[in-house]
Amino acid sequence: MMHPVKQIEIKVGMTAKELVQEMAASGVMGAGRIAKAAKIAEAMAQDKECKVFLGLAGGMVPGGMKQIVLDMLKSGFADVLVSTGANLTHDLIEALGYHHFQGHHQVNDAELNKQGMDRIYDSFMPNGVYEKMEDFFTAHFEELRNIENISQFLWKLGELLDKEDSILTVCYRKHIPLFCPAISDSGIGLMLWGKLAQGKEVKTKAFEDLKDMMELSWTAKKTGVIYLGGGVPKNYIQQAMQFSKGAMYGIQITMDRPEPGGSSGAELREGISWGKMQEQGQFVDVICDTTIALPLIWAAVKDKVSE
Amino acid sequence: MMHPVKQIEIKVGMTAKELVQEMAASGVMGAGRIAKAAKIAEAMAQDKECKVFLGLAGGMVPGGMKQIVLDMLKSGFADVLVSTGANLTHDLIEALGYHHFQGHHQVNDAELNKQGMDRIYDSFMPNGVYEKMEDFFTAHFEELRNIENISQFLWKLGELLDKEDSILTVCYRKHIPLFCPAISDSGIGLMLWGKLAQGKEVKTKAFEDLKDMMELSWTAKKTGVIYLGGGVPKNYIQQAMQFSKGAMYGIQITMDRPEPGGSSGAELREGISWGKMQEQGQFVDVICDTTIALPLIWAAVKDKVSE
Amino acid sequence: MMHPVKQIEIKVGMTAKELVQEMAASGVMGAGRIAKAAKIAEAMAQDKECKVFLGLAGGMVPGGMKQIVLDMLKSGFADVLVSTGANLTHDLIEALGYHHFQGHHQVNDAELNKQGMDRIYDSFMPNGVYEKMEDFFTAHFEELRNIENISQFLWKLGELLDKEDSILTVCYRKHIPLFCPAISDSGIGLMLWGKLAQGKEVKTKAFEDLKDMMELSWTAKKTGVIYLGGGVPKNYIQQAMQFSKGAMYGIQITMDRPEPGGSSGAELREGISWGKMQEQGQFVDVICDTTIALPLIWAAVKDKVSE
Amino acid sequence: MMHPVKQIEIKVGMTAKELVQEMAASGVMGAGRIAKAAKIAEAMAQDKECKVFLGLAGGMVPGGMKQIVLDMLKSGFADVLVSTGANLTHDLIEALGYHHFQGHHQVNDAELNKQGMDRIYDSFMPNGVYEKMEDFFTAHFEELRNIENISQFLWKLGELLDKEDSILTVCYRKHIPLFCPAISDSGIGLMLWGKLAQGKEVKTKAFEDLKDMMELSWTAKKTGVIYLGGGVPKNYIQQAMQFSKGAMYGIQITMDRPEPGGSSGAELREGISWGKMQEQGQFVDVICDTTIALPLIWAAVKDKVSE
């Protein structure tokens, strides 16, 4: 029994959720995938046996996605977070009182450099943040240097920052496991390097978190994965899935192509061969800029997520 | 004076328009572009001196975008339409009573072929439509064969189909200039070939429409362009812009890349060098699947468009 | 029996053909596809029953691909050519003695406009070409205006230009069928519009060429297709394939994505559902900038193509 | 003084280097960028004051690029290597005697899973490699567990493997600094997890390598960067550049788009705003599958690289 493609109808005043319902009735191409992602996200939210692993890559904080990530964490929708170091650094920067700014990508970068502005496509960040970060890490170095797990280290940052609208703080307060395997590859890493360069020791270990990460996957009755971008966060969750039963639900939002063979652009179904995804699972690859797709998907499911 | 990137906030029950306003407040990356496109569309709609040229390429009818295009035409938002032959063929097919169906892209195409299903990515069309089309063209051939302009030919199709929800009919009824330079490259073209192959003559001329098209551009006080996909529709409008004052407003939605040098992926600003765009114009390239971006943009501006 | 991925080895002084042989031995990802395309091109060249249809879209002449296209035509490798109007216009411009220039994409387009330079990504064309084109069309208008087929019209252009290194001339001299359904969407179209605007008549018909095009497909024992970019050229050849036995060989080079559902990005296997491709055919989608992939592929097969 | 775009000419028997020279004479679009990359690579090779940092991401070993990377290391062309964990794991797997296999991307992944084959796009890896890896890590665990730097840990792996054609071994033997910040996100990481899960300790630290990495950048007279893919390797090198004088030379090969704002797709010029790149530096973004672009570039410069 096949369903006809309903032509999407826009009504004045319609809610974002109704818009996604129209996309579901259309059911094809990008719109169909947005709708499918919303449906899968709702299924994850309502399946009480499902542990949701959220991977965060690309310029999500400079790109305006922080509040939605906070929603996912605060509401209990996401159970585990894996992030790039950059997104946590940008979160920390905002927690320290800085903003990112609306810029443009057609600019003279040398001119920007003179103005002390760092460019993240069309989002600008004042280079002065590094000084403030340094102050913060200097003030708290003793509390941080002896932590052996990266995840504990990040929770401690969240505790110290103590800001309602910080990803780091929310993970700490709600005891949401937060991983960042490549933490040294970030502004946070640079701050620690500053201390190492002064001959100080930092005890954080590289492999330690694997125990917790793998156990979270291993002990879950069911797992769901959400990848905002690819990179290490996706791959780190994928490898944890391989040693559980494989994910039952999956949503990936990316603009990367699969053909060149990298993990970031790989279709979710590829994971079935590895045992990272279940053959009978519900998956969708949304080929879209995350800053467009994610707000739309979240607007369609937020009411189904218990606060 | 720089604006901070506001983190996008999703509220339960928010309208699609409010969602785009959040994207405007964020102001960066894909979300920022969606919001900018909405702003420019609104400016076009409210600038009474502006003639809007709409280019339609890619699988817009099989992809569920027909109703939004009809909105744009019926409301007076779009003043001129340029389309691929394929979209007009799919419009005709739906006007003849057929549907497209929700399929999948991971299929056995040989199996589909045996089932008589033609695939347009994940939208399926029964091959049987060709017979019905043939009946239609046979019944009306005498009314069509002597029309010298492609645009008049298309209006005649619209008149004959006489369906409220057909792009062809709406253009005919509202006397909206409708161009399709590559009409022979389409199912409609194939139907005419059937007659030519029987030794009959079809008088439609290849260059004739240029007079009307160029005059529409030439006589406009201001022009705006909207490109859903690239191809001939974009290029044909662009070349008309070159011989007017250049477009004052521009929105392009595409996933094509600019680097390989084709017209479809070219950034709108490139048109400034040619005189196709005005230097002071308002333009935006939305890098997104049209079936995602267009519904969102239209939901944000439909209330500002006079019916 | 599976073949191991051989790590590609570069030897000083190796030929481009040997490089593609290394890619064949690797056999995966982009390199594997380049090698497969070369293998299929060789099979097409050596299958004497195969008629090869070449589709030409994107900035191929401004992008430096003209000589390879000429090779394909002069050597008898390509039997039928379908082009965008733009590529034929750029060919005509070069035949009139102009060049394209090496520019840059990071430029001030308004500045370029003042300098009279039209930009095609990073290839620049002096705007002055339009005057010279106008002189040419004024001088030859009487010879052109009464030609009823676009293909005959284009051969006549080739005859009049009479230049060894012109695609138009080579098609004329070698009687290679040359189609351009959207000819009015091009600089050539603009020239004709100039005459129409003066009240003159141009008799070229829109559908007429379909007879020849479809017969070329219909009467071929076997067919092969090569798509450099998508657009009308690809689609026009595809629709001809649908009414023959379907293509036996296929190579497509494109950077467009399949997911948004347009014809340009559609994978060749999709054509099997329509009957445009044979299930047992040999096909490959090369996801690459044509200006990189085509020279490499052609370097690997040129010695197998009879001059 | 502008240079005309020379139409690329293919000669039977031409070398790959001559092909790239033709691309240089064309000078535009993808071909122009390949040629520019070759020119910059040659400049890096011949500038004795330049330290070259190579970033390795995506499926480079399963994709057949290992031998070229080995060339770059053995010849002294690359002075520092930063890799994803995956590429080092695949290198280790090949050093243990396994191969990757030429597969296909249009497959039944559940079927593959039953056959014990893991898919990396169209490159297949037998799942049995994990057992052999486990044996290796069990045999050598005592030699590995107490190493505090990831880079020393990786050199030790190279020493233990002791294979001429292993990236790990070559880095060890030639004392080429080798970094992998996200080592825990890889098959190698999984092996260590196996030991941690047994209650054993692994002393490798997360931040320790930053000292060496930053000093390598800091002490260089000039720096050059080559990014095969993006991810952590690119970003880790970029952040080191920020705290030196900025890179003087840069080549990036990627298919990722810049618009969504992630680091992997970011144009190199963006780095100028951060001070990661020098304004007067020579940079190029090659928008291409690495498995196509890299062999071509390397074939053009290998003779200029001292063995």
Topology:
The structure is a homotetramer of 307-residue chains.
Chain A: H1 16-26, H2 29-46, E1 50-56, H3 66-74, E2 80-83, H4 85-95, E3 101-102, H5 109-114, E4 117-120, E5 123-126, H6 129-144, H7 150-161, H8 167-173, E6 178-179, H9 187-197, H10 210-218, E7 222-228, H11 231-242, E8 247-254, H12 270-274, E9 277-287, H13 290-301
Count of all domains of chain A: 1
Helix count, DSSP H or I runs of 4 or more residues of chain A: 13
Beta-strand segment tally of chain A: 9
Tell me the greatest interface.
A-D, 76 and 75 residues
Strand count, sense and closure of the main sheet of chain A?
6 strands, parallel
Shape of chain A: globular
Quickly give the structural class of chain A. alpha/beta
- Gyration radius from CA atoms of chain A, angstroms: 20 Å
* CATH architectural arrangement of chain A: 3-Layer(aba) Sandwich
In percent terms, what proportion of residues of chain A is strand? 15-25%
| Average pLDDT level of chain A | 97
CATH superfamily of chain A: Deoxyhypusine synthase
pLDDT below 50 for ≥5 consecutive residues: which ranges of chain A? none
CATH class of chain A: Alpha Beta
